[in-house]
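Many introductory courses stop at the sequence. We go one step further.
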Amino acid sequence: MAWSLSANIRIVLVGTTHPGNIGGAARAMKNMGLNRLYLVAPKYFPSADATSRAAGADDILCRAVVCETLSEAIADCQIVIEASARSRRISWSVLIPRECAGIIQTEPESTAIAILFGREHSGLSNSELDYCDYWLKIPCNSQFASLNLAAAVQVVAYEILSTHQCDKNHQKETRCQLASSSQLESFYMHLYQVMSELGFIHEDKSKSIMRRLRRLFTRAQLEVKEVDILRGILSAAQGRKVAKKIETIDH
């Protein structure tokens, strides 16, 4: 059995166009004890270039999970972190790699964590960013902020390993289970549906309002039971509206 830092951490590469970068990322992961690689719609994979660049990390490539969509790759994750050098209009919880590693270290090993790396030239789209809880930014030269994909994975993986080794005797806090990405997406769909029924949200402003609401609930780090409560409130609001409509018809 190969040594592994933690089975709850996955590296997710989205829309990678150069297979060599996949191999380089796999090598960086194995160097630092990470072995769960997810690939979302890679342009070329499997590939001899990927295997060549992996340089001994072939086992990670062989076990890589290939998904058609990002939502599929992170469906069971409770924490999603995106790595990007791009500026964003909407406020985000911005972390440097060491801070990111610190957050990961405090989480129970049952918490599924995904760290996303976007396309080499364009990163992640705004709709893909909606899935994320944190924005990870690697400090570098402001005049040349574009890191090679494998190098970015190496930096982040190094900080995770370093923090783990320095703090491996620390007792992790016991906490309730966080809601998964798929559970949150179901909640957001339910929320949008109820707001539409109430006439609160309009099509021309729906994207910006939902994006800000997502950021609000992301900061709260909703637990499974909390999502159940919120959805119960939404269902009650829908039931009351239906009852009122029936009452109006009867009269």
